[in-house]
Amino acid sequence: MHVSAEIIRQQIRSILAAWGMPEPAVRTTAEAMVATDLAGVDSHGISMLMQYEDLWRRGQLNPRAEPKVVRESAVTALLDAGAGLGHPAAVMAMELAIGKAQAAGIGAVSVINSSHFGAAGYYAALAPPQGLVGLVTSTTRMVGVLPTRAAAPVLGTNPIAFAAPTRRHRPFLLDMSTSTTAINKVKVYDFEGRPLPVGWVLNEAGQPILDSAVAMDYLFHRGIGGLTALGATEEMGSHKGYGLALMVQILAGTLGGGAFSPLRNRTQRPSEPDNIGHFFLALDPKAFRAPGEFEDDLDAAIDVLRATAPSDPALPVLVPGDPEGLARERRLREGIPIPVALAAKLQAVCARSGVPYLLVPIGGAPAAGPDA
């Protein structure tokens, strides 16, 4: 079924509030999750609620956490997320980096003691409306990615997001994992009963796994095999994705004191937080060029890219940010798709949280608000 963004927003807010999250954090988190679903990143929006519930019930997630600045200079800061969901800490960190960049040309903020924060691109995209360039990286709690030549996973999907302002075009927005795909995208394929593309997941012998259910078993239970680093195989350049993942670990984890998951897992108790780390950088192009020159040159580059002759006339050349922008326009009109399997899991989360299940197809029976 397709559900309106507003109903999904109400559903997320009702569940988070039931877990004890303060209203400002509920509002920030729900907005980030809905924006992610609208952008077509189904793996990082409302479908994350089951994982968040599991972390909360195990005591690894503190829904009442309030991020705090623990170290700060004119152009840098370190935030402690208090073992809360990453969305509120990430918005606070990016807004802090933006403010520093507006004052001094550059702002860099690290976050430690955090949890999953959704899609990195959401936070990078906060910079261009302020005329700034944004860069965001993050470690992850799960160890699911194979280093090149490895039979067992060591790394996380370790995303990178980069956004830049334009004048005429939609802002440039690159949002990518350093693995060939994300664990949660495999989860989406499993929800939908679809086979995986070749090269997303390998077994311990380096052979591709195509059955999404078998892949989920490998990723969550077996401890061998896993997602491939960006490039899929050594011959196709997976060493580049492997290197990028390590770069993200250094920026988002090592720099501020976030955990390296394989080491954390050796001593972590079941209720101990994951200490995920994030990194946020904001740059002001006006520190380097006259106002507007950066945006004009980027617009011109985008013009060239979009005017490039496509190999298939039915598939024009796009630039990063276009697929998400087009998905947002379509989903605002048609609604956000909720697979049957996901709907059943969300209904169970609502029941356990003591809140009404609100999701109905667009044009279906009206749903009560989160305070009903």
In short:
The protein has 372 residues and is of the alpha+beta class.
If you had to describe this structure to a student in words, what would you say it looks like?
- This protein is of the alpha+beta class.
- The protein has three domains: 1-57 and 331-372, Malate/L-lactate/L-sulpholactate dehydrogenase, four-helix barrel (Hypothetical Oxidoreductase Yiak, Chain: A, domain 1, Orthogonal Bundle), CATH 1.10.1530.10; 67-178 and 233-307, Ribosomal Protein S8, Chain: A, domain 1; 181-228, Hypothetical oxidoreductase yiak, domain 3 (Wheat Germ Agglutinin (Isolectin 2), domain 1, 2-Layer Sandwich).
- 40% of the residues lie in helices and 15% in strands.
- The protein is built from twelve helices and twelve strands.
- The chain has helices at residues 5-18, 23-38, 49-57, 86-104, 120-124, 183-192, 212-222, 238-254, 261-267, 293-307, 322-334, 340-353; strands at residues 2-3, 68-72, 76-80, 106-114, 133-138, 145-146, 160-164, 172-176, 201-202, 226-228, 276-283, 336-337.
- The strands form three sheets. Strands 2-3-4-11-5-7-8 form a seven-stranded mixed sheet.
- Helix 4 links the parallel strand 3 and strand 4 (106-114).
- Helix 1 (5-18) packs antiparallel against helix 2 (23-38), helix 2 (23-38) packs across helix 4 (86-104) and helix 6 packs across helix 7.
- The radius of gyration is 20 Å and the shape is globular.
